[in-house]
């Protein structure tokens, strides 16, 4: 009866928007002890918007937005899209920059008339030896504690201002975390974002174990470390960046809206966008395996 039970379980899962690759994937999903989730695009909508623009004294908001958008025109990051669409609403053409470089987990830089402009997080500015003005730094910390992502703009060695971006938490993320926890699963969050921002989102959805300010390859290390302790680890992600971590996990879950590369590396694909489907997938797998035994 075993193969039949698995077929029934797999097709029941498919009716619930959960596509299980094969019987091994179903079996493994029933043994998970931990689920690692990416913040951006998984717990949040992945559609950030600019919520505040704070120039340093003597600088105007529109100048800060214009230079920030001109820098982001060379980037495909979700934060870049948000900055560009805020500028688009103003209808003013972008400045021409050259020598664009994107620094993963940090931000972007480019040049205009021989002067370097950069845009990114505090780690990026620190590494470049730029001092953050005290007033704006307090503002950045205040916004980050509320789940906002601070993005700094600098010209040469001077900070021009600060933008705050906010990516709304999906309405069902907290319920999904609670459902997983009721199944005895420890939920762990991984994010390349600012520590305070990541912790604010984690608190909002009920996650206590948080890894923030990490690079994509470090997400894989978080999973390996858990596996070395004997844990069975699921990973939920949507981005190209998440593919190695999805492959390393015992069960990789790709969200339906995710990139093709995420889906190719997944054991279970969720054809909807809700993290609740991960809890459903695990519940169906567990029920199926229990019936077999
Ligand atoms: P995640 O997808 O987990 O949030 P990323 O590695 O894509 O992480 O980005 C991490 C951080 O690096 C962002 O939160 C942001 O602070 C900074 N960053 C990366 N790319 C950009 C960009 N194009 N513009 C502004 N900030 C960026
Ligand atoms: Mg990402």
Automatic annotation (TrEMBL):
Domain of life from the UniProt record: Bacteria
Subcellular localization, as worded in the UniProt entry: Cell membrane
Family: Belongs to the cation transport ATPase (P-type) (TC 3.A.3) family. Type IB subfamily.
This protein's name: Copper-exporting P-type ATPase
Organism (species): Desulfobulbus propionicus (strain ATCC 33891 / DSM 2032 / VKM B-1956 / 1pr3)
């Amino acid at each position: 009866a075993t193969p039949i039970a698995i077929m029934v379980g797999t097709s029941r899962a498919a009716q619930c928007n959960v596509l299980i690759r094969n019987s091994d994937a179903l079996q493994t999903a029933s043994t998970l002890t931990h689920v690692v989730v990416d913040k951006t695009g998984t717990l949040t909508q992945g559609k950030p918007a600019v919520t505040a623009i704070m120039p340093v004294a003597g600088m105007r908001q529109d100048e800060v937005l214009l230079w920030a958008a001109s820098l982001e025109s060379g980037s495909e990051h979700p934060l870049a899209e948000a900055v560009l669409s805020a500028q688009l609403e103003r209808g003013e053409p972008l400045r021409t920059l050259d020598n664009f470089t994107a620094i993963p987990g940090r931000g972007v830089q480019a040049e205009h008339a021989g002067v370097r402009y950069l845009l990114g997080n505090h780690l990026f500015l620190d590494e470049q030896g730029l001092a953050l003005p005290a007033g704006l730094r307090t503002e950045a910390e205040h916004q980050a504690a509320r789940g906002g992502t601070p993005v700094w703009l600098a010209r040469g060695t001077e900070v021009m201002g600060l933008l705050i971006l906010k990516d709304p938490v999906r309405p069902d993320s907290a319920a999904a975390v609670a459902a997983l926890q009721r199944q005895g699963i420890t939920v762990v969050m991984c994010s390349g974002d600012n520590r305070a921002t990541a912790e604010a989102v984690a608190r909002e959805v009920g996650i206590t174990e948080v890894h923030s300010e990490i690079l994509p390859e470090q997400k894989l290390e978080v999973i390996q470390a858990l596996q070395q302790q004997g844990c069975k680890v699921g990973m939920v992600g949507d981005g190209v960046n998440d593919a190695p971590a999805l492959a390393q996990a015992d069960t990789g879950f790709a969200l339906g809206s995710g990139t093709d590369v995420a889906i190719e590396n997944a054991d279970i694909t969720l054809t909807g966008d809700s993290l609740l489907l991960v809890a459903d997938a695990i519940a169906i797998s567990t029920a199926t395996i229990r019936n077999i035994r």
